[in-house]
Amino acid sequence: MNLKKLLIASALALGLNAGALAATEGVDYEVLPKAMPQIQKDKVEVLEFFGYFCIHCKNLDPILLKHTKTFAKDTYFRTEHVVWDEGRDMNLARITAAVNQAGEKYAANPAIFGAIFDEKVNLSDAGVTAQWLNAQTSFNGKKVLEAYNSFSNQAQAKQMADYTREYQVQSTPTLIVGGKYKVIFNQGFENGMKTIDELVQKVREENGMKAPKPKAAAPKSKGASIAKAALK
């Protein structure tokens, strides 16, 4: 190999190594002063504290929800709405609890953020919320409304207020992995997804967890195989 090719190869190698660097404490994440318990102790928790009133949470939401679909079976996503101002936030926490209970987060969140920021709907008001949920068709609004009116809903919202204080959440969005590591989004939300993955692996190693099996590839449809053969 001549000198020119050697220099090019070395530069490429350096570039690849730089891209593979692990998340750095103080740059990509910080360690919480006190580790907090996970809901599921035998898995890795990715916890988001957010606010439906928060524009940064609105911008992060589609990126984060899409990324959570790539999580391995040993990793789960949990969301808690912050409660700083009870007059504004408590009803939004109730909506969050209802959306979680109904299993409608992925479909409902875009509509909820859109209602607050684009349509200026006051979802901090319980009466407005009930009417708005009942009218929704982009997600199962009636199912969410049923959860919203359930016996446990207000208690779940109160628990979110307690979590806000216990975790000393000062800003949104706040992402915590494994009850220990807070993600820093200095390089944008997309790069933050890589940090989340690296921290999940870090927690796995610290907890002596086995590496999860890779997800099975989606089966190819017979129709797709026929179409591919026909193009040859």
From TrEMBL:
Please list the disulfide bridges: 54-57
Region named Disordered:
208-232
Give the residue range of the signal peptide. Answer: 1-22
Q: Which UniProt keywords apply?
A: Signal
Keyword Cytoplasm carried by entry: no
Highest taxon of source: Bacteria
InterPro entries linked: DsbA/DsbL, Thiol_disulfide_DsbA, Thioredoxin-like_fold, Thioredoxin-like_sf, Thioredoxin_domain
Ranges annotated as biased composition (Low complexity): 210-232
Domain (Thioredoxin) ranges = 12-157
Keyword Lipid metabolism belongs to the record? no
Protein's UniProt name: Thiol:disulfide interchange protein DsbA
Q: Which organism is it from?
A: Alysiella filiformis DSM 16848
Q: What does the organism's lineage look like at the top?
A: Bacteria, Pseudomonadati, Pseudomonadota, Betaproteobacteria, Neisseriales
